[in-house]
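Following up on my earlier thread - several people asked me to post the actual chain instead of describing it. Fair enough. Here it is, all 162 residues.
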Amino acid sequence: MNEIKPLIEAALFVSGRPLNIEELAKICGSGNLGLIHSCVEELSKGYENRNSGVVIQKTEEGYIMRVKRDLEGKIMHLIPETEIPSPILKTLALIAYEQPIKQSEIVKERGNRAYRYIRFLRERGLIEGKKCGRTRVLTVTPKFRDYFRIEDLKEFVKKGDI
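Reply from S.P.:
Thanks for posting it. Predicted structure:
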């Protein structure tokens, strides 16, 4: 157990995405999921109990290490630019804002390159599409909310709804 907790902590620190118990067990070379779970919980409580700038949170997809929300505003300028290229990010914003939205409408708005952008976003699990006739209806996923730290999609209020 002495070497498992630091390994879990390091994995959560570098991953940048939620890791589930099974992934953490594989990283640690342990088949004891109960042990891994208790180690993650101990680490999480440890971060809560000390005056740390980070926390370990449980999400739908697993555990993730994050900066405490009350500190985000003071350090956001230090975070490197997103790994999502700007044209793809604009397409994602359109999907998030207008969802559910037909893929054909995205293509009409963003051009034929939108097909590539949509594939990129689907491969990363940020959006999903359900077949609807000859097109797909696109929506964002829980991973989108985790990635951008959006607790409630009602934060995306349409101008006409205000």
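Helices lie at 4-15, 21-28, 33-49, 69-75, 86-98, 103-110, 114-123, 142-147. That should answer part of your original question.
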